[in-house]
């Protein structure tokens, strides 16, 4: 029988009938599991994690490395079924390198398959695919998104209460070199991250090291995050790439400001939507929030203006580090330039982080002209999927220009 191969991000329709999803991984002991999620991207209860110790729930079952989902029996309040493959936690230092393979079989339909991309950033768990409702039927999407948090970390992102062995709280990374004057203090203690969001401890330590290496480990800043919510970003929200990006920014914030929260502004339409992501609520938070925002090309300047307004109203004495994720060219370029000029004296630094499928020449060329240089602006190209960028390189790209600006 002919097999149809899916590429990462592609989807295809399914019959409302049992579907068999067989996973194979070469050279690594791995476990397969499934998560049943409601419309808000969260499990209804801990029973919605289907794995070797709980092999069946409401029409979804696990047998070895095979997931079977009887789509007729899946309850109406289950919106998605996520197929996950994770490195065996009893296998020391086991990470994914080769690509997991997924075979999708339904009686009366051609066999479909998906081979995830190879991984290079120490990923220990991969969201391989998701079954999701569309109109009155079901579809499957090839995801292939890797994470370094293990199954326990990923499960908690979806609201599963996973018990784990308490880990020793590491000592804060020591500051090296000279200490800067001004808005300064001792290096931020990461024990709060360990206590409230242990899955973010590893990226927070990488972020802390990036600050140490640039001699700004003792500096403070209020971190903001602006997210593009144009329609071209939809796939990146649905594949959890934006959630993963926001988590890494939150980990950076934990090293610059110990309040454990980042204001998040969704750029969509004329009225930006502002909420926050915190160490105590970050799991699945972007998925919960972005469903309240329309898909449309937003006014970037309006989102920037909202961030500055929030910063000024907060009364913060420390500078603002505003990370603005952009997926395409802005249509309000003149307003963006004007805002950059007007905020140069306000203690605001702008980092435009490009990822997505659109053109980003405007942001790349902001400082190309010597006569129009913005001292408080930088651009970082994080590739089409920043999740594939190793933590060390990712945080270097995030803080390099900010560190230079802060020291001057």
- Rg, rounded, reads 22 Å
Report the order of strands and helices. Answer: EEEEEEEEEEEEEHHHEHHEEHHEHEHEH
* Distance separating the two termini: 65 Å
Give the low-pLDDT segments: 164-183
Q: Could you give the count of β-strands?
A: 19
What is this entry, summarized?
This protein is an alpha+beta fold and 408 residues long. It has helices at 150-157, 191-196, 201-213, 234-238, 241-256, 285-290, 300-314, 333-342, 361-364, 391-407; strands at 3-6, 11-14, 18-24, 30-37, 49-50, 56-57, 60-63, 66-70, 80-87, 101-105, 111-115, 125-134, 137-147, 222-228, 261-267, 273-278, 320-326, 348-354, 377-381.
Please provide a written account of the structure.
This protein has 408 residues and is α+β, with helices and mostly antiparallel strands. It is built from ten helices and 19 strands. The protein has helices at residues 150-157, 191-196, 201-213, 234-238, 241-256, 285-290, 300-314, 333-342, 361-364, 391-407, and strands at 3-6, 11-14, 18-24, 30-37, 49-50, 56-57, 60-63, 66-70, 80-87, 101-105, 111-115, 125-134, 137-147, 222-228, 261-267, 273-278, 320-326, 348-354, 377-381. The chain has a seven-stranded mixed sheet with strand order 1-11-10-3-8-7-6, with no helix packed on it. The protein has a six-stranded antiparallel sheet with strand order 2-13-12-9-4-5. A hairpin with a 5-residue loop joins strand 10 (101-105) and strand 11 (111-115). Helix 7 runs parallel beside helix 8 (333-342). Residues 164-183 have low confidence and may be disordered.
Keywords:
408 residues, single chain, alpha+beta, 19 strands, six-stranded antiparallel sheet, globular
């Amino acid at each position: 029988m002919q097999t149809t191969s899916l590429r990462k991000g592609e989807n295809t329709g399914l019959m409302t009938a049992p579907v068999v999803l067989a996973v194979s991984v070469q050279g690594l002991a791995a476990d397969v599991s499934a998560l049943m999620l409601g419309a808000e991207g969260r499990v209804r209860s801990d029973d919605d994690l289907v794995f070797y110790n709980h092999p069946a729930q409401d029409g979804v079952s696990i047998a070895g490395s095979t997931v079977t989902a009887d789509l007729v029996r899946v309850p109406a309040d289950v919106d998605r079924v996520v197929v996950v493959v994770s490195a065996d936690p009893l296998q020391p230092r086991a990470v994914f390198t080769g690509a997991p393979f997924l075979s999708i079989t339904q009686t009366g339909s051609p066999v479909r398959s998906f081979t995830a991309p190879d991984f290079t950033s120490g990923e220990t768990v991969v969201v391989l695919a998701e079954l999701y409702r569309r109109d009155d039927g079901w579809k499957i999407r090839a995801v292939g998104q890797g994470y370094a948090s293990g199954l326990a970390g990923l499960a908690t992102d979806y609201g599963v209460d996973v018990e784990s062995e308490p880990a020793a709280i590491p000592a804060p990374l020591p500051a090296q070199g000279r200490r800067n004057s001004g808005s300064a203090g001792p290096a931020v203690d990461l024990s709060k991250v360990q206590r409230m969001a242990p899955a973010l401890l590893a990226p927070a330590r990488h972020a802390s090291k990036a600050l140490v290496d640039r001699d700004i480990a003792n500096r403070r800043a209020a971190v903001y995050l602006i997210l593009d919510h144009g329609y071209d970003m939809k796939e990146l929200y649905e594949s959890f790439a934006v959630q993963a990006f926001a988590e890494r920014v939150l980990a950076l914030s934990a090293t610059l400001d110990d309040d454990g929260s980042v204001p998040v502004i969704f750029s969509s339409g004329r009225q930006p939507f502002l909420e926050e992501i915190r160490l105590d609520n970050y799991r699945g938070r972007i998925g919960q929030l972005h469903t309240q925002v329309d898909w449309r090309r937003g006014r970037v300047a309006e989102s920037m203006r909202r961030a500055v307004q929030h910063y000024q109203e907060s009364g913060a004495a420390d500078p603002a580090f505003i990370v603005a994720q952009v997926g395409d060219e802005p249509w309000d370029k003149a307003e963006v330039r004007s805002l950059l000029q007007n905020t140069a004296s306000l203690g605001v630094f702008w980092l435009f982080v490009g990822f997505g499928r659109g053109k980003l020449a405007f942001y790349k060329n902001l400082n190309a002209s010597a006569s129009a240089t913005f001292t408080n602006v930088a651009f970082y190209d994080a590739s089409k999927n920043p999740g594939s960028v190793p933590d060390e390189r990712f945080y270097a790209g995030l803080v390099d220009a900010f560190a230079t600006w802060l020291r001057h």
